Structures are given as C-alpha cells and as structure tokens.
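Workshop exercise sheet. Pairs work together: one partner reads the sequence aloud, the other fills in the structure field after running the prediction. Swap roles for the next sheet.
Pair: D.N. / O.F.
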Amino acid sequence: MSRLNELRMIARIAQMYHIEGQRQADIATHLRISQATVSRMLKRAQEEEIVRTTVVAPSGTYADLEAALRANFGLS
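Structure field:
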C-alpha cells in the first residue's frame, strides 16, 4: 500500500472511530481488516498528527496553573 493510500485509510478509520463513534470491532468488520490493525492505525493517526487531543478547561478554572503548582510543590 502506498504511503498516501495508507494515510487515507488511517484518516478514514480515525473518522469512523472518533467522529462517527463506531467501535473498533465494527470498523474492522466493515473494512475487512483485523481489530488489531484498526487499533494500530488509530495509534498511527495520533503519531502522524491526523488526530490531536485537546483538553479545554471550563471557564473559571486554572488547570495549567494548578498543574504547575503541583509540580513545583510536589503535590498530587
């Protein structure tokens, strides 16, 4: 499989999983590949920056400041 086709497949699997909410087993069945392959491609989607995870803290919270204080003072 060419790199471009591989990236297309990874993007499609990521879309099915993250946007459409399909389970890995269902994606595997639909695409006629193993569930292990789906799992590996989802991991590759993150490595290739096809999928990015962003945490948005609610307004009025200071998650970054809290993390820095925990790190500075050895808190858990």
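Discussion prompt: The domain at 3-73 is CATH 1.10.10.60 (Arc Repressor Mutant, subunit A). What would you look at next?
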